[in-house]
Amino acid sequence: MVKFSPKGAVTKKLLLTSDVHDPPEAGCPDLNGVRILLVEDSLSLGEAMKSLLQACRADVIGPVASAAEADRLISENLPDAALVDINLRGGERSDGLIDRLRDQGVRVVVTSGYTDLPSAPRNVAATLSKPFSEAQFFAALLAMATPKMPQHVNRKRKPDSTASALP
Asked: Has domain 35-149 been given CATH number 3.40.50.2300?
């Protein structure tokens, strides 16, 4: 089990050598083809989350540590979903970034080292309090699954015989 902590320490080192043709790691949702923006100011935590997302076969954009860097990446390639730390580099809060992502139809999972956010963002898919486990991380990923994502990611999909084509 990997635990992610607010200070960025990872209590188990991830050693992953996965490729898009490999099946996802055990327990990972299959995120093949899903673009996920990762905004996290702790380099070690950002890299650990990126490795875990890649083990689930996601296409990870980032990690980046500020809203300006995230906006630059969004302008180049709109993600399907985003994992965003509420507190970024230099005391910056990500509320505005979260609003802009939501306005563009991007589902957001907020991460925070605070157990009780003073003013939690509204209309996010999930909130993860650090430290969090792999199981909590995977549950949050499933919570942000949307109809525009590949159907295999969304647990509420219709049976294959009645599934409609994706746009």
From this structure: yes
